[in-house]
Amino acid sequence: MSVRELVVLGTASQVPTRHRNHNGYLLRWDGEGILFDPGEGTQRQMLRAGAAAHDLNRICVTHFHGDHSLGLAGVIQRINLDKVPHEITAHYPRSGQRFFNRLRYATAYRETVDLTEAPVDTDGPLAVTPSYTLEARKLSHPVESYGYRLTEPDGRRMLPDRLAAHGIKGPDVGRIQREGALGGVSLEDVSEVRRGQRFAFVMDTRLCDGVYALAEGCDMLVIESTFLDEDTDLAVEHGHLTAGQAAAVARDAGVRHLVLTHFSQRYTEPGGTSRTESGGEFERQARAAGFEGELTVAHDLLRVPVPKRR
Questions:
Q1: How far apart are CA 21 and CA 57, in angstroms?
Q2: What is the pLDDT of residue 269?
C-alpha cells in the first residue's frame, strides 16, 4: 500500500529552542522521499523519526537562510556514508549556488552517491514522474526564496453502477481501462475523473502571488506562520506570514488540510501554561480567519497523513 505522509522533523524559525529543532520536513510520497529545508540537526531528527538516508530521493531547499539549510552538510555526508544506491536530486535557488557548494563540501568525506544538482531560477515545472509533477514558484523574502508544489496526475474512477448497466464485468473492466473502449462503450461512459492529490510547501515569505498559486486547490498545505496576528508589522518587515494570513490563504485557495509551522522563538515553548505554548493561539487565529478545513499546528516528530483523494 502506498504511503503519503508528512514527517515533521523541526518547527523552529531562526534558532532552535528546547522543544523545537530547526526546520526539516520529510514528505513520503508512495515509494519516494522528498526532504524539504533541512536545518541544523536534521540528521538526528531523521533518526528519531525512523527515517534513513536511503529514504531520500529529492532535497528541496526554499532559500539559504541557516534555519532552512545548515543541515545540508550533514545530510549530504550521511547519504554518501550510507552509500545510497539511487540518484538523489537537489533543488535550490540558483542565486544561492555558492552556499550550496560550501555546504556540500563543508568538510572532507568520500563521495559515493550520484547527487544531481538542479537549481531553480524561474517559476514552473522541475520534474515530472509517473506519480507527480514537481514545480516551483518564487516567493517574497529578503533573500531569493521558492516554494514547491507536487501535483499527482488525474486518473479515472470506475463506476460500478454504470459498468453493470453496460454489462461490463470481470476481466473486461481492466480491458476497457487499458483500451479506452469496449463494444461501443467508452471509458468515459463508465468512469469519472479522479482528481490527483496536491501538496504545497511554502516557507519564508510575505503574501504574494506565488503563495496563492502554490496553495490553490491543495489537499495539504504546509506553510509558515512565524508570527501571531498582533505582530503583523514584524512579519511584513522580515518577510514572513502570521497565523491569520496563512489561514486566509488556505481558506481562499480551498485547502483541505492546513499545517502551520516555523514558529518564532518569541512565543513560549510547548508544554507550559499559556495558550500559545500548546499551539492554541495559532489555531484560534487561524479559525478566526475563516479556515474551516482540517488544521494542524505542527510540533517536532509529528506525522501527518496526506488526506485521501476526494
A1: 23
A2: 58
Name the average pLDDT for the chain: 94
For 229-295, the DSSP string reads GGGHHHHHHHT--BHHHHHHHHHHHT-SEEEEE-B-TTSPPTTSSSGGGGTHHHHHHHHHTT--SEE
Residue 273: its pLDDT value, please? 36
Active-site option among 55, 67, 219, 229: 67
Rg (CA), the chain: 21
Distance CA 66, CA 38 (A): 9
- DSSP state at residue 95: G
**Spatial distance between the Cα atoms of 57 and 35, rounded to a whole number of angstroms:** 8
Enter the DSSP assignment of 118: -
Residue 183's pLDDT band, with cuts at 50, 70 and 90, is confident
What are the residues whose beta carbons fall under 8 Å from the beta carbon of 195, sequence distance 6 or more? Answer: 154, 309, 310
Per the annotation, the verdict on 67 as an active-site residue is yes
